[in-house]
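Example (one chain per record):
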Amino acid sequence: MLKARVRRPHGLRFGPWLLWAARIPQGPNLGVGRIAVTDTPCDSAPGQTLIRDGQGHVLIVGGTAFAVLRCRSVPIHRAHHDMRVSWLYHSWLYAGMGLPQSTSGAAQRPSLRWESVAMPKAGITYSKRKVEAPDYKALRAREERAVKDELGAIARPDDRIERAAEIIRQADAEIALHIEDRDKGVASLWFYEHVLGLAGAIDVTNTAYREILSKALYGIDRRRTASGHYELRPVPDVTGPELVKLAEEAGVPRIENAFEELPRLASVVSAARARRAAAVVFMRNAALALSEEPYGWSGEKIAEHVGVGTKLIWQQQRTARLAREKKGKG
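Predicted structure:
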């Protein structure tokens, strides 16, 4: 899967169809697959309720993507109008719909875990400042309820699954656009300011927080343990000055306004993940309903209708079927 944000490419429009070409930063030299884009506006008009969303096919040659997209208008979430104009594109062959998400926004490997991680404690003078975190529990509940109310009001499963996929796609775009800045802010506050309570401040588990710090210091550096699992390198247990030196040598950026920006960035990611999680359940159930009477759709037909891979639809149907069986036994 490839995700990136780029300036809106110039293109040619023919009715709902859009043709464009764009250079992919650090992208592959050659590739082909599905593509999805979401246009996120900045300083939109007060009455604006729709954004442009598209999906289609892409051919990558020499690091340049040539795409054919079918576009449509979808509802925009008013809470996130501060996002820069950018397009997120990624291959829907591995879009991660229905898969658990890691702190980096990518689908997690089930075997990834932390076994022995020592957080730095001795020799550190902790900051007295705290990040003013919002009420994430209430935020998640509000976003989940909005999705459930919207999708629950759609009677036809073919319409419901299509809208659920759109919500997931828009949530993925919002996560991808904000999570990198969020993680940079977290790393800056820990390595340079030694702020405590950052895991709760951004609504992640302690394990996910340690993963963020490890990636900031070492990048993606997994190693196989004696038990056969993979783990990221732990942040060493060193003094405050040594921690600062490690961060500077690793190129961890200092974010001057991290205290102010972190709550906003974390709120966007947390809200998007809540909407995504709620929409995934509806998508699974709709995929199963479409495969049964009176519809009798094949997995291939459902996948084509939604714009995802057939394997993903099969996985969702299996999960929904198991959940229904479990509920029936209970």
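Caption: Residues 100 and 129 are 33 Å apart (CA to CA).
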